[in-house]
Amino acid sequence: MSTAVKVELALAGAMFAVAPWIIDAAPYEATMGLVYKIYFFHMPSAWMFLLAAIVAGVASARFLFGKRQASDATAVAAAELAVLFGLLALVTGPLWARKAWGVWWVWDARLTSSLMTFLIFVAYLILRRFGGPGSEKLAAGLAVFGMANVPFIYVSVNVWRTLHPKTSVVPTLPVEMGRPLWFCVTAFLLLFLALLSLRAQLERQRWRIDGLYRTLDEA
What we know:
Elements: H1 3-25, H2 39-66, H3 69-101, H4 109-130, H5 135-159, H6 175-218
Helix pairs in contact: 1-6, 2-3, 2-5, 2-6, 3-4, 3-6, 4-5
């Protein structure tokens, strides 16, 4: 484990440890009260989900069109993180929505496209695990398709009527609410970067071990 990864993990751990006090200090929202504070974990999870999808898509494109094998390890790592953070976003979102808006789920543009993107990366991992030889290229195509959904997810609330607020809301948050949000985003980002680096390194080590096994078999 590199020094940079150790620092990222240490900082992320420390920030997550103090996050409950930072969030507790934020004022209640006028209409939703206490329950809106799920937002401080839901929003960063959703952003890391979209970031992971972008990283997986870009790395997969480099693997497909640039023949860069190392990019495939990054793609695998990012795809797993897309599933992890996507699951967090899809769980915390309905918990918040049920209390705030009276429904667990609605099939609006943002929720439907987010679920579809999450399922694309689940399919990516299943294909990598069970698809056999050559499946990494087909999976890379799936990752590129998943990345293409990210701009749609982001702008959907500005184009269609949804329960989600528009993208213009976050920049206009009061300082007392914006500060805890960006604190949590930073903690999630540090965790994302550390996990991405560690998982990509693990994937490269797996390749080396598989290569040694093939060499032994040929011998």
